[in-house]
Structure formats: structure tokens, C-alpha cells
Amino acid sequence: MNVLILGGGGREHTFCWKLGQSPLCRKIFVAPGNAGTQQTATNLPIDPMHFEAVKQAILTHSIGMVVVGPEAPLVAGIHDFIKSDKALEGVLVIGPEKLAATLEGSKEFAKEFMQRHEIPTAKYASFTSATLDDGKAFLAAMNAPYVLKADGLAAGKGVLIIDNLAEAQAELESMLVNEKFGAASQTVVIEEFLRGIELSAFVLTDGKAAVNFPMAKDYKRIGEGDTGLNTGGMGAVSPVPFVTPKFEKKIQDRIITPTLEGLKKDNIPFQGFIFIGLIKVGEDPFVIEYNVRMGDPETEVVLPRIESDLMELLLATGKQSLQSQHLVLDPQVATTVMAVSGGYPEAYEKGKEIKGLEETTGKSLLFHAGTQQEGSTVVTSGGRVLSSTGKGSSLKTALAESYATLAKLDFEGINYRKDIGFDL
Ligand code: AMP
Ligand code: GLY
To answer: Which end of the chain has the smaller Cβ count within 10 Å, N or C?
Structure first.
């Protein structure tokens, strides 16, 4: 079967690498892809939000399966679009329909879902410009820090955590009245602050059965010691050492199972990956957020730990036969460290030549993110540039491999955290 992967980051390169190992996979196309995916697959210059162009690519290249990397096309309804088009009948989409994608597309929808199904999460209330004064009063009755969340998609920037009440009230007003995050902040969810350590769980579901993928922990802040601005993710590790069998059972019983059951009870079909952002408070797990796709850079440590044929799992998802599948895992630790452009996550320059790539080819798991082939050179084309995955019997040996690969690489302004895994 031919596969089309939508997206162009490290996550999509990792899917491309993993699916490329399957005898069930014939040709892989990636839209738009990057310089890494181009080495083994065919890049198509298509914006995944341009559904008509995606349709033409499916028809032209006889695509049997579309794997949707990022959330935006899912929230915009790419699955529904493909499903409702007669010419695309039988094309399998990995990634849910619009209704289920609302779990990521609207924080309020996700909170109501959790409340309805008694899934542990921070207490909350939501407000619009019509209830701004109630929102300010709600904040005044809470303790600091204050957590304000734009309801809609805001490219990972829509969550504010503020220590000062007056500032929190002003930000609430700016989000609701001045639409600080555009339409995404027409509704704002205010949450109780949870103190703990974060981790992520991943589940592949066909709507009936589900297979748990390995958990991971990512590092979102730009600076060492988890300081500075939030980014898309600066690194990740899997497994997560503080997830004991007892804690894992709590995650399964209190969160994963009720989530899957809740989707069924609410008649919300779901075919694809559920990424559950969790926080461990004391000894108990709480949900921070749902995503309806795999994480980036979590994918760069999760898929390399899977020995099973991923294509077989995705095909089983389409046939609703995941029940008969189980995952074979590599017991090794995987780590990934993201090399980013100087200045990221604020303004940064693109088009810097990446040197040393030939030294890593075939020898390491180096996943491309914001890279682009220009003639015979590869240049930077985004904030997050390369994700270096290492594997080993311990966190230390896996990290040594991640960092050894990065030491061979260079581009003007290159930056990466030297302390991934520091807190474990
Ligand atoms: P989100 O976009 O929902 O993942 O939120 C971004 C980040 O904000 C999370 O990864 C957490 O670090 C933090 N965060 C979100 N909600 C809370 C909360 N209720 N308590 C503490 N931290 C939170
Ligand atoms: N690394 C977080 C995300 O993919 O949303």
C-alpha cells in the first residue's frame, strides 16, 4: 500500500522512517516533508490544510492510507473531507474526525468531556467577553498562580500561568476582549494550578479496542533547568522512570479506560492516536490536556522503541481489529535532543547551511524537522531543526548517543539543551 504522511517535522520524519521498514508499505509520500523525509520518500509540495490538493495527491499516487501528523488539519476536518468524498472511498485515515478532534481544538469541550466521565483534571470554569466580570471575580477567589487557557488552537502559545492577580485579570481581559489569541481566545478556561511532574501517555485506538504506546516525558522550555519560554519541545525521553507499575495502573484505570469508554458513550468515533498530557500530583495522575495526534518530539523516542510493524498496527486500526494486536517493545531507553535555530522560540533566521550531516547518515537516528534541501546542501527552514535520538541500556548511555550525534553537526546559531533528562 502507498502511504501519504501529512506534515513536515521530526514527528513525520520518524513516521516515515518507521513505516519505511514495513514490507506492507510500498511507497511513502510526505506533504510537505523536509530534507530528511526526501532521502527515503517522495516529498510533495502541498499544504496539509489545502484539502483539495491532498485529494489530488491521493488520487495521483494511489494512496491507501493517510497518516495525519499535526492537529490543524484534523481540527479543520480532513478526515471528514476524505470520508465524504466518493472518489476517495476506502482510503484509510489515521487521525480522528472533526468531532473527536475537538478534544484538542477546544479546551472547554475537553474539560466538559472529562467532567462528564469523571476523569481527574484541574478544577475549572470558562468565560467569554459577556462574562468577563465573573471571570475576574473567579480569579479573585482563587489562589495564585492563575492558569488561563485560550479555548482554541493557539500553536502551543495559548496557556498563560501568572503569579499576580491584577496581571491575570488584565490578561483575561486582553484574551477575551482584545482577542489576544484571535478567535482561539473568545472563550477562556481558567484552571486550578496543579503542582507536579508532567508526562505523556499515547494510545492508538480503532474506536473499539486500543493499544498503549510507550509513555514519554518532554522538555518544553527553551532553557536548561526548565527555564525560559515555552517551545514546541526541546527533547524527550522514554520510558518515564517514575512511572511505576502501580502508577501506570492508576493512569490506565482512572484515565485511559474512562477516556476510551467516554468516547463510546458519547458516540464520538475515534480512529488514531490519543496523546494524553498528564501531571503527577503526589501519587495521582491528572489530565492537563488531550491531543488527537502523536507528540513532537515524543514520537522521536516512542516509535524507535517499538519493534512491532507499525504499518500492521495502522492497517488493523482501519479494520477495527486492534483487539488482536499487541505491541512488542524494545526495552532500551530512548532519548531525543532537539537542535534549534538561534533565537527560537522568538524570531530566528532561516537558510543556514547544516554541516556534518554526512557523518551521521546511516549511523544514527537523526530525524529532520525544519530542514530543506537546496541543491546539494541542506539548510535550516524552521525553529526546530534536527532531533537526535539515542538508544541505550540506560538514560545516560542513550543521552550520550544523542549528544555524540549533535556534536558532529553545525549550523550558524545552533542551540540545544545540554540537560535533557536532568530531573529524572
Ligand atoms: P497545555 O497547552 O494545556 O499543554 O498547557 C501548556 C503547559 O502549561 C503544560 O504543559 C503545563 O506545563 C502547564 N499547565 C497547563 N495546565 C496547568 C495546570 N492546571 N496546572 C499547572 N500547569 C499547567
Ligand atoms: N511536544 C508537545 C506536543 O507535541 O504537543
So the answer is: C
Of all protein residues, the one whose alpha carbon is nearest to atom 4 of ligand 1 is 289
Calpha distance 223→279 (Å, rounded): 21
71 ligand 1 Cβ < 6 A: no
Report the SS3 class of residue 399: helix
Q: What angle do CA 222, 224, 225 make, to 5 degrees?
A: 115
Which atom of ligand 1 is nearest the CA belonging to 195?
21
Do 352 and 365 form a contact (C-beta atoms < 8 A)?
no
Report the top-level CATH class of 197-225+238-324.
Answer: alpha beta
Nearest residue to 308 (alpha-carbon basis) of 287, 323, 329: 329
- pLDDT in the model for residue 85: 98
Strands 333-340 and 124-128: unpaired
Checking 322-328 for CB contacts under 8 A at 24+ apart, the result is: 322/204, 322/205, 322/206, 322/208, 322/209, 322/210, 322/211, 323/208, 323/209, 325/211, 326/211, 327/211, 327/212, 327/213
Selection from 285, 329, 288 nearest residue 306 by Cα: 329
252-260: average pLDDT: 98
Q: Show me where the domains of the chain are located.
A: 2-100, 124-191, 197-225+238-324
Express each pLDDT in 72-109 by its tens digit.
999 999 999 999 999 999 999 999 999 999 999 999 99
Tell me which architecture the domain covering 2-100 has in CATH.
3-Layer(aba) Sandwich (3.40)
Look at the domain 124-191 and name its fold: Dna Ligase; domain 1 (3.30.1490)
Nearest listed ligand to the Cα of residue 296 = 2
Which amino acid is located at 24 in the chain? L
Residues having CB closer than 6 A to ligand 2 are 218, 233, 291, 295-296, 298
Strand stretches in 282-418, DSSP E? 284-291, 333-340, 365-368, 371-374, 377-380, 384-392
CB half-sphere exposure, 241, CA atoms < 13 A: 13
